[in-house]
Amino acid sequence: MSTSDGVLVRVHDVGKVFHRGSEEIHVLAGLNLEVPRGEFLALMGPSGSGKSTLLNLIGGLDRATEGTVEIGGERVDQMSERKLAAWRARHIGLVFQFYNLLPVLTAERNIELPLLLTHLSKAERRRHVETALRAVGLTHRARHFPRQLSGGEQQRVGIARAIVTDPTILLCDEPTGDLDRKSGDEILSLLQALNREQGKTIVMVTHDPHASARAGRIVYLNKGQLFAENPG
Amino acid sequence: MKFFYLVWRNLTRKKLRTALTLLSILVAFLLYGFLGAIRLAFTAGVSMAGADRLIVRHKVSIIQMLPVTYKERIERIPGVVAAAHQTWFGGIYQDPKNFFASMPVVPDDFLAMYPELLLPEAQKQAWNARRTGAVVGRTTATRFGWKVGDRVALKSPIWQRGSRNDTWEFDLVGIYDGAKKDTDTSQFFFRYDYFDEGRLFAKGEVGWYTVRVRDPAQTAAVARAIDAEFANSAYETKAEPEGAFMQGFAQQVGDIGTIMIAILSAVFFTILLVAGNTMAQSVRERTEELGVLKAMGFNNGLVLAVVLGESFLLAALGGLAGLGLAWLIISRGSPVPGMLPVFFLPTRDLVIGVVLVAALGFVAGILPALQAGRLRIAEALRRQT
Q1: A224 φ, ψ to 5°?
Q2: Would you list which residues of chain B are within 8 Å, Cβ to Cβ, of chain A?
Q3: Beta-carbon separation of A85 and B300 below 8 A
Q4: How confident is the model at residue A47 (pLDDT cuts 50, 70, 90)?
Q5: CATH no. for A37-63+79-227
Q6: Domain residue ranges in chain A
Q7: Smallest CA–CA separation between A192 and chain B, in Å?
Q8: pTM here?
């Protein structure tokens, strides 16, 4: 799933306006971004700069007010809600700052969730879950509930859940934001390995320079605009 | 089915809240089952009534007697096939709490009039052969452990055999069964000639007549003709279809059906609020989780189905357990067999109960489910930051 020029994500002239009562808040304006397939991109910027909003637009979690969002040649911004949901299930893997695991499910059941949307049999789903658990080094914690896991382990489960369907692109929103330095480093190493060894395209939002240093390219977002270098 | 585990685990999230809600639903459906059985017990006579049968009683009241000679005069009226009389005896066995309906009858007339009472031929003959013979329904025979050949002594609060003797002795010659499940098999019948000979007063008088008419469409006309036959006599009559008579009898307590519906409406409305509140709270508490599911690719319909599934499961667990428990307890028999001899949970009420369970699941869950289905992902995820 990639265009002939190797660009996987193409965001063109995108604007996003939020409404708070009668007030209009322009979060993004005329923004352009291209992410080649296989790239590990870090998206940096201060709080409120629109990093997560841009990530949501790329992942089809929200819709742009103007402009186009194209992933692998498909116009995400033009899809119906139903088609968009199916598209997300197939192409997007999401990693959240607070892990967002379902507390009532064990690690393996959490990882299995996206697979419920596929036509895989129970045995096939189990195999995929085991593979994902191995990839994040948590086979021994499969039957544990999130409350029984450390923050770093929970985030690894989150990553396993994001990669279990072998998505086209991994979108990570502050994946180390809730972790200590050591656990954060482990998570970043894991993302790096997924990018280098499996060629996974990753877009990671962070405001931590230490985290962004692990990425292949860094872009900066400030006041709704993208910069190749930190505008300061 | 692959989503069932998710639905189930969501339901067990707040165990105490779920348990209390389940208990409320269980109690509501237990009550529903019991009230259904009680309603049936009160109206069993109406549903059992024959469309071709009339009841003829004294015009003033059922406790006023009619002459036994009316039988022949009634049977001569055009449209009448046969007439059989009964008289209220009010039998008590050993202790006043062991009360059941008991009536003196003419065996052949009576059994021909009530073919729904099934008595083996040999027992019929034995009844005709023995003056002190009596037959009893299976329910009462089981209740007191009676068997054919037993000698049974009953007391009557009305009829005495002598100035100090209110005990009547009978030889049990038969035990009858009902042709249908709702046939009353608690009654005790004995011979009129034995009764009439023994009683101290009102000899030659009977309580009421049951009359079979040839054409059920003509019951009203035949009833008018019977009343006209005895007009201006010392014993004027009131003839009415058996169903109407039974209904009048049941309504002496009140309109049971309306009372039951009023109670159940209040109960179900309350339960709807309890279950609805549980579901609404459950959805409110996990807005972010629902947002995550949608972000993963769960579409609006699927999220709606998962939440609605929880509501259905909650209602089904509590409701079916309540219905099952009601059925189990009710199947052990009437708590007051003398008062409510026909006591069981009709299949129709069970089916309606299951429909009510499904309706409760739907109504309690639909609003939170729609709310969850419409949830916007970005907003749901933003709530936690």
Answers
A1: 80, 5
A2: 2-3, 5-6, 9-10, 12-13, 288-289, 292-302, 376-378, 381, 384-385
A3: yes
A4: confident
A5: 3.40.50.300
A6: 37-63+79-227
A7: 22
A8: 0.73
